[in-house]
Amino acid sequence: MRSRIIRSLLSLLCPETCAACGEVVDGDVGFVCEKCRERIAWVERPFDADNAANKRLYMTIHRTTREEEGTTAQEGRETLAVAFAHYIDKGLTYNIVHAFKYGHRPNVAVEAGRMMGRRMKEEGRFVRDIDCIVPVPLHERRKSRRGYNQAELLARGIGEVTGLPVESGVLERRVNNVSQTRQSAYGRQSNAEGIFNVRFPNTLEGKTVLLVDDVLTTGSTLGDACRTLGLIEDVRVKVATFAVAGGY
Ligand SMILES: [Zn+2]
Predict the structure, then answer these.
(1) Distance 10 CA to ligand 1 centre (A)
(2) What sections of 124-218 are H helices per DSSP?
(3) Whole domain around residue 140: which residue ranges?
C-alpha cells in the first residue's frame, strides 16, 4: 500500500513518458505506449532466413560480397540471426534505442528485451534449442560511463520472458574501439577484428547461445563476436538484435 502511494506521488512529480513518442504513460504499461507498440516499424517476418539481419550477418561472417548475397540465402536454411524492428532515422525505434543508449533510461532496454522475448516465445522454433543468452559486451570504461550495458539489459528482458539464463561474464571486450560512425566501411571492418575474448570457455562448451545486441548495422562487430564464440568447442551461435539499420 505504502509503496503504491509513493509510486503514485513519484509519477505525479516526474511522470513516466513513452520512450518512442514522449507522451506520459501509466507506470504499469511499461516504457513504450500501446499506440507506439503497434506503430513501430516491425520487421515483417523476422524469423525467415531471408530477413535482412540474417543475410547481412551471414555475409559478414563468411566474407561474401553483396553480389553473392542472393545465392547464400537459399530457402530452407536455418535462421541464425533475427532483428525485430527497422531502425529508421528519427523514427520510433530510433527514439527507443536512443532512450536506453544515450538518455539514461535502462528500463527501456529491459522493456525492449521483453518485446523481443515475447516474439521469440510466440514463434517457438528459433529459441527451442538455445541454452543461454550472451550479451555483446561493452568495454568496461564505456560501461562505467553509461552506468550499464544496454545489451545486458536487453538480454535480461529476453531472459525474463523466455526463462533462459544470461551469461554476462564469458565474452569480454578487449579494445575500446573508437566510435564506428566516424569511420569508413573499410575502417570499421578492420577495426572490429579480434576485439573480443572468451573467458571460461568451458561454461559454453557444447551449448547453443543467443548473442544479443541493440542494433545490427554493418554486422562487423557482431560477426567478430560470433567468430570469437565459435572458437569454443562444439558451440552454436544464434543472434538477436532489437533493430536492424538499412537494407530492407
Ligand atoms: Zn508512444
Answers:
(1) 20
(2) 140-146, 150-162, 185-191
(3) 45-245
Residue 33 C-alpha to ligand 1 middle, in angstroms?
4
Q: Measure 204 CA to ligand 1 centroid, in angstroms.
A: 39
State pLDDT tens for residues 145-201. Answer: 999 999 999 999 999 999 999 999 899 998 765 555 444 454 444 444 579 999 999
Distance between Cα 115 and ligand 1 center (Å): 15
63 and 114 assigned to the same domain: yes
CA 42 – ligand 1 centroid, Å: 15
Question: Are both 19 and 65 inside the same structural domain?
Answer: no
Specify the pTM: 0.85
User: CATH number, domain at 54?
Assistant: 3.40.50.2020
Q: How far is the CA of 84 from the centre of ligand 1 (A)?
A: 18
Contact 163/194 with Cβ under 8 angstroms? no
Residue 75 sits in the same domain as residue 126: yes
The tens digit of pLDDT for each residue in 137-159 reads 998 888 999 999 999 999 999 99
Do residue 94 and residue 157 come from a single domain?
A: yes
Q: How far is the CA of 25 from the centre of ligand 1 (A)?
A: 8
Residue 192: alpha-carbon gap to chain centroid: 17
Let me know whether 100 and 168 are in one domain: yes
**Pairing between strand 132-135 and 208-216?**
parallel
Enclosing H/E stretch for 107: helix 106-123
Expressed in angstroms and rounded, the spacing between residue 34 Cα and the centre of ligand 1 is 7
